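We treat protein structure as text, and this decision shapes the records that our systems exchange. Because each token names a local backbone shape, the row as a whole describes the fold. For reference, a complete record is included directly beneath this paragraph.
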Amino acid sequence: MDKFKLLSKQEIKEKAGADLLDNDNQANQPRRGMRSRGPAMSFNKPKKIRETVKRLLGYMGVYKVWVALTALFVILATSVNLAIPYLFSYAIDEFILPGLYGEILRIVVIILLIAVGNSFIRFLSRFIMVRISQRIIKKIRKDAFDSLMKAPISYYDEKGSGDIVSRMSNDVELINASLGQTVLEVINSTVVLIGSLVYMFILSWSLSIVVVLFVPLMILFTIFISKRTRKGFKEQQVHLASLNGIIEENINGLKTVKLYNQEKAFTKEFKHDNDKLREAGFKAQVYAGILWPFIHFMNNLIYLTVIAVGAILFLFAPGWLSVTIGQINGVSIYSRQFIMPISNLSQMFNALMQGIAGAERVFELIDTASEYEEDGKEHTEAFQGAITFENVDFSYDEGVPVLRDINFTADKGDVIAIVGPTGGGKTTTIKLINRFYDLDRGTIKIDGRDIKSVGKDALRKRIGIVLQDTKLFKGTVFENIHYGDFSASKEQVIEASKQANAHDFISKLPQGYDSMVQEGGENFSQGERQLISIARTVLSNPSLLILDEATSNVDTRTEAKIQESMEKLMKGRTSIVIAHRLQTIQKATKILVIHNGELIEHGTHQSLLDARGFYHKLYQAQFEA
């Protein structure tokens, strides 16, 4: 946005302040792999064609009998259909010109039977291929989604949501188009090309040579135009991805855009990218539009040339060069059928390359290393809750440390508060406890066991987290709370809601627990979403509790209610609380002050105030303000 001499996005963030637009979760995101600007679609030529095709064939291997049968159907139908012009030529020379009209009916019936049989076989082959391709695509989608569910958080940081969505939707659909349509068309066009050439030479070698002489020009022009068309469509997809990114970004941040009256600036950016897309699309369509008029022109030119040369040969050529009326008719028809597959195969080749390129990107996603590959083997039903950080170093990007030599302990039932400036590394600490990332150096222990020795599923199951920005899923209120433990009964869900102080407002909803939650929970207030989230955490019955700025976005009254719910939840559990509001953590067993990735102070609220260090300055600045 800096090109618009209006408020930049960074200026908007700075003007809005940390509590409105930013939070510690965002501040501690990896510096590499910033959020993708929409689908990063790419239709470059695939780099691993052989390996990708081999893997696609592997998916098709389950249906190899049906695929082979479908290919056989297409070859059979096309081959039989190619006989029709030959039958016409034969009928002209043998029956029509000699006046044997009674025999014509037999030829007409044969041609009708061929046409009906050909249509049925084509329908059947298309039906089988579409059914196979849909099943293959279903399997590929499942494998890709399974990989996403097992991918480490770092993968999402590096790729960005736009790129991942593009692979799961656009690239998968490219594979679908290639499998469902392109493969059959390639087989059909190849058979037509070869079959037409064979029938032409059977009818008349001299007229066939006339047709073949035009082929090099056709091929060269088709390749020339196809390259530029492909380049144009690549540019179009790049600009389309950018435009989609702007739309996605503005929808997600619409409230902020309106809050600072930046509609004109974002509209100007949209217009700029939209113009680029229009120019690229126009260029691509112009090149694409040149090919077919050229093909039709060449088709008509070759047809007329065959007729003209055939007439000359019929009238004046000696016997060894002479041709019949039927042969002229047959070769002219086959010349039309022969020319079209040359262009079709070029277009199908482009489509196949796009499908293979899409498959390559999807397979890259499927091949993403699972975060469970190097997982701990130990399982635990519960933690006592003693936590130890020993000499912990961590960086998202190599050479850019986020945490340096962090050491602290927490006993069972302790409340550990982590405070410090935004971006100092507070939220990163809890990400490491959940093993969203692994340490560069040092050890994190729970109950004396290195968390790397415990399976991630088991570890995360025993940790409950309440975040500043609560995520609710589309569905009912009951389903959102039940997400904490799918084995829980409805009575247990209601009891968890009561403990979280959420039951009262849920009961007053029109459908109670069956009330629908809109996407993102937009039909609930921030406080209500937070209470539902706490109820979900209560239901999961965690051994260790993490609260990350859980009350920073709500009013004082709601905060008191949420605080009461959290105090109930924290009883008997080791808790880690990240807070900017220092009045919420004054009763903490131990307060850790993290600044620029280093633990610079620790102690109780009063001892830190008495030390008159960094915490004292934070406290004074906050309460004086």
Remarks:
- The chain has two domains: 48-366, 387-624.
- The CA atoms of residues 102 and 122 lie 31 Å apart.
